[in-house]
Amino acid sequence: MVEHLGAPGSRKRLTPGAVENFPGDGLFERLARVICVANCLPRKELHEAWETARRARRRLKGGRVVDLACGHGLLGYVMLLIDDTSPSAICVDKRKPASASTLAAALEAAWPRLQGRVTYIEGKLEDVEIHASDVVVSAHACGGLTDRILDKAMGAGAGVCVLPCCQRVDPHHPLAGWIAPELAVDIDRAARLRAAGYVVRAQHIPVEITPKNRLLIGVPGPRVVASAPLGPSISPRPP
Ligand SMILES: C[S@@+](CC[C@H](N)C(=O)[O-])C[C@H]1O[C@@H](n2cnc3c(N)ncnc32)[C@H](O)[C@@H]1O
Q1: Are 218 and 132 in contact (CB under 8 A)?
Q2: Quick count: other Cβ atoms within 10 Å of Cβ 129?
Q3: Is 49 close to ligand 1, i.e. is its CB under 6 Å away?
Q4: Nearest to 131 by CA among 33, 231, 5
Q5: Is the beta carbon of 124 within 6 A of some atom in ligand 1?
Q6: Is 94 in the pocket of ligand 1 (CB under 6 A)?
Q7: Taking the CB of residue 105, how many other CB atoms lie within 10 A of it?
Q8: Count of beta carbons in the 10 Å neighbourhood of residue 227
Q9: 184 lines ligand 1 (CB under 6 A)
């Protein structure tokens, strides 16, 4: 019997019984089937990673992919899957979920070209060294964590794409009389990127997947230069 799926924003785990809901030959449907069989990920994460990576890759090509606050690390994998211009990816989270290895094994078995190219680092993102050639991505790094990720990317002059959530709002923000305080936080982030010389794209992923759906993309412009001192490295330099 085909398992009936809820909304794309469902937190229910995708299970082998859901495979027949994804019958097509396209990359998304093949990915969805692999994740169903792996039996370890909520449906929401599949759609968030796919929609984020799809939009990020239109603007940010090549370079090492750096998925910060990565959770299971699916976004890092999907970035390589959608666009093979990056040699490698690192996925960083201070706490590696038990099923991250299950997911990695399933993806690498389905796409052998990914084998050995994605490294999961269990550690604080603050300790990761970012390089100008990197592409930094992050989905739902809560509150000020998104700012720390933007700081790291801007410090190195790297491309960046974030899907922020849980904004820490300032009720006295100068724009509070006009717009929702959460939106003001993200507008400030976009303005900060622009002031640093980035070409900014403000987009959405479909709201059916998550109401926290604002996507902020920063492509380094010609004025962008690495400005911040680099922190201690817990990752190898990219090839
Ligand atoms: C809301 S989850 C998002 C996970 C994943 N990106 C996703 O979309 O499913 C936020 C993640 O940030 C991680 N995190 C929080 N502070 C961190 C830090 N300083 N360094 C690395 N990871 C951190 C948490 O462990 C958690 O997995």
Answers
A1: no
A2: 17
A3: no
A4: 231
A5: yes
A6: yes
A7: 11
A8: 12
A9: no
pTM score over 0.90: yes
Closest approach atom of ligand 1 to CA 95: 25
Q: What is the predicted pLDDT for the residue at 2?
A: 55
Extended beta strands in the chain, E state: 65-68, 89-93, 118-122, 135-142, 159-165, 198-204, 214-220
Q: What mean pLDDT is reported for the chain?
A: 93
**Which atom belonging to ligand 1 lies closest to the Cα atom of 49?**
8
Cβ atoms of 77 and 50 closer than 8 Å = no
State both tokens at 211. 């109401």
Interatomic CA distance for residues 213 and 140, integer angstroms: 9
How far is Cα 205 from Cα 189, in angstroms, rounded to an integer? 18
Collect all residues with Cβ–Cβ distance below 8 Å to 215 and sequence separation of at least 6: 52, 55, 56, 161, 162, 163, 202, 203, 204, 205
What is the predicted pLDDT for the residue at 238?
A: 45
Q: Tell whether the model's pLDDT for residue 232 goes beyond 50.
A: no
pLDDT recorded at residue 5: 78
- Atom 4 of ligand 1 has which residue's CA nearest to it? 71
Residue 42's beta-bridge partner residues?
A: 13
Q: Which domains does the chain have, with CATH numbers?
A: 51-220 (3.40.50.150)
